[in-house]
Automatic annotation (TrEMBL):
Keywords: Transferase. GO terms for biological process: ketone body catabolic process. SUPFAM superfamilies: NagB/RpiA/CoA transferase-like. It comes from Frisingicoccus caecimuris. InterPro entries: 3-oxoacid_CoA-transferase, CoA_trans_fam_I, NagB/RpiA_transferase-like. Belongs to the 3-oxoacid CoA-transferase family. The keyword Ribosomal protein does not apply. This is Propionate CoA-transferase. The active site is at 326 (5-glutamyl coenzyme a thioester intermediate). GO terms for molecular function: CoA-transferase activity. It comes from the Bacteria.
């Protein structure tokens, strides 16, 4: 019997109350054709209802695609994932407590799939201790509906006198994942995918749960025509294949065209790098880049942290570090926006769960990520704002385990008027919103845990550099031209630890000329 079915038929396999796994990383690996069909069926028939949906990375374009197709009241009862910010329609239902929302670290989601595949009760890990994921804090519960549900996804336990978290496995009744080609028996290749994610692990978890595995592909091909080394999901794990329309099978949500330079099929010459304009973002990037070490394996987050890669490129030292993305891509030049997770000219592409093994074990030398809110204990929040749960993505796995962490962002939030002249920064009119709080809204990074584990942690802004120390945050440097009291202390809800003499940042950070950056060994 042929495994090839329509997307509508695949959607009809979902019954009320099922547990559904969904593959994807923003737009990479997202089974859009299947999601369109699921939405269509629900709007036409009111079925299926009350689903539990499990996915790891955020899936969506911030508008209509990805998990936004499932943002209809009644379709989902419980959501278990690492990021919902790219699916505002679904996020709104969580905000309104119409969906129970449980938000886990992204690496935990990947590793839960492996645990489920192995028929294990769950995952034991240190990841999430003393963050909102910890049962002593918020227990991964992203809204009141989750808190009132009586459902628990994580427990605290001790092994040899040490605290760990136990995240429960999530058996799956059906999953929807994606590849490039499938042969007539169901073998699946991913040759045109920008990353491999945790598609194999989701297939294994679903099969060993007794569930149904549906794979969306670009095209079905003849048996035996796929090179064996290209097959990433073997046929016996696959129940059904869906051939997608081209518009529902983009390589990513960046655009409709296939870009072979994202898969390693070809390598393209990179145009001469246009220098970033000298602005607060670049100042943060320059100060962060000065912390880099030659040969380091580095994870760079989105936002201001991306400026570090730009500065390293301008300074001609980018080839002296290895960039790693939690999606499993190593090397190359990261793609931003809706291309998050991929890189141009990657050196290698491995699976996401394997990457998180490397991260969780302390393999990252350095990581630079965003700074939305920080408090006097060094805690950082990037996952919840104004009561709206967004989720951490891979932030917790990365920041808890990298040897050196730099949280990067402007000192205040909102529109700011500034001037950089003669090697000095002048704050003409500050942004209105304070980011250095007495207490953060949610603990995505625990300063207490960082001190306990001996991490080196910096908080990098355009006007001040802080370091995590026992007892809180210490102010190390201020930008030339800023007023300590007016521009820094008055814009904080707490007083940092300070020496009598505070160092002034190097003026070369505040000029248009290259810094002639060289790395420490």
């Amino acid at each position: 019997m042929s495994k090839l079915v329509t997307a509508d038929y695949a959607a009809s396999l979902i019954k009320d109350g099922m547990s559904v796994g969904m593959g994807g990383f923003v737009g990479f690996g997202t089974p859009e054709e299947a999601l369109v069909a699921i939405e269509k069926r629900y709007l036409e028939t009111g079925e299926p209802k009350n689903l539990t949906v499990f996915h790891g990375a955020g899936i969506g374009d911030g508008k209509d695609r990805g998990m936004n197709h499932m943002g209809h009241e009644g379709l989902i009862k419980r959501l278990v994932c690492a990021h919902v910010g790219l699916a505002p329609k679904l996020g709104q239902l969580c905000m309104e407590n119409k969906v129970e929302c449980f938000i886990l670290p992204q690496g935990v989601c990947s590793h839960i799939l492996r645990a489920t595949a192995g028929r294990k009760p769950g995952l034991v890990t240190h990841v999430g201790l003393k963050t909102y994921a910890d049962p002593r804090v918020e227990a991964c519960k992203g809204n009141e509906a989750a808190r009132q549900s009586g459902h628990e996804v994580v427990q605290l336990l001790q092994v040899d006198g040490k605290d760990y978290l136990f995240y429960k496995s999530v058996p799956l009744d059906i999953c929807f994942i994606r590849g490039t080609y499938a042969d007539e028996t169901g073998n699946v290749s991913m040759v045109k995918e920008g990353l491999h994610g945790d598609q194999l692990e989701m297939a294994m978890a679903t099969r060993n749960s007794g569930g149904i595995v549906v794979v969306q592909v670009e095209k079905m091909v003849q048996k035996g025509s796929l090179p064996v080394k290209d097959i990433k999901i073997p046929s016996f794990m696959v129940d059904y294949i869906v051939e997608a329309k081209p518009e529902n099978h983009p390589q990513s949500f960046m655009g409709p065209d296939y870009r072979p330079e994202l898969t390693g099929e070809i390598y393209i010459p990179l145009d001469a790098i246009e220098p970033m304009p000298l602005n607060p973002r670049k100042i943060c990037g320059r100060r962060g880049a000065m912390l880099l070490k030659k040969g380091a394996v580095v994870n760079l987050g989105i936002g201001v942290a991306e400026a570090i890669a730009a500065v390293a490129g301008e300074e001609g030292v980018a080839d002296q570090i290895t960039l790693s993305i939690e999606s499993g891509v190593l090397g190359g030049v990261p793609t931003g926006g809706l291309g998050i997770g991929g890189t141009v000219n990657p050196e290698s592409i491995v699976k996401q769960p394997d990457t998180f093994d490397f991260y969780d074990g302390g393999g990252l030398d350095m990581a630079f990520l965003g700074l939305a809110e920080v408090d006097e204990k060094g805690n950082v929040n990037v996952s919840k704002f104004g009561g709206r749960m967004v989720g951490p993505g891979g932030f917790i796995n990365i920041t808890q385990n990298a040897k050196v962490v730099g949280f990067c962002g402007t000192f205040t939030a909102g529109k700011m008027k500034w001037e950089i002249k003669d090697g000095k920064l002048n704050i003409i009119e500050d942004a209105p919103n304070i980011k250095f709080k007495k207490a953060v809204e949610q603990i995505t990074y625990s300063g207490e845990y960082g001190v306990e584990t001996g991490q080196t942690v910096y908080y990098i802004t355009e006007r001040a550099l802080f370091k995590l120390v026992p007892g809180g945050m210490k102010l190390l440097e201020i930008a030339p031209g800023v007023d300590l009291q007016k521009d820094i202390l008055d814009k904080m809800e707490f007083t940092p630890i300070m020496d009598e003499e505070i160092k002034v940042m190097d003026e070369k950070i505040f000029t248009d000329a290259l810094m002639n950056l060289s790395f420490e060994e």
